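Researcher: I'd like a candidate sequence for this fold, 88 residues long. If you have to choose between options at a position, lean toward the conservative one.
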């Protein structure tokens, strides 16, 4: 089966307070970047899976993400397919 790489971006839900993001904003303001209104921090994963096609790969990574990579109570996630090597 072909190898597929799927990127997973995990972020806190908008209703969840992000203390690390708030600290970054305050630091940026003290450095003179007053126009920065907000920062939300998150996690990034690249997951490689063997699957018959891209749709099956997405389904598998979606399941992995909702089971382990993201806490569904406070986090959401989105998937992005990586371009196959040599097609960039």
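Model: Candidate sequence:
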């Amino acid at each position: 089966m072909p190898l597929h790489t799927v990127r997973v971006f995990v972020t806190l839900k908008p209703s969840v307070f992000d203390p690390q993001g708030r600290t970054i904003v305050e630091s940026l303001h003290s450095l003179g970047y007053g126009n920065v209104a907000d920062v939300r921090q998150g996690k990034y994963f690249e997951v490689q899976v063997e699957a018959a096609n891209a749709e099956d790969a997405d389904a598998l990574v979606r399941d992995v993400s909702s089971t382990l990579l993201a806490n569904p109570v406070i986090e959401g996630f989105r998937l992005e397919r990586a371009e196959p090597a040599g097609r960039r």
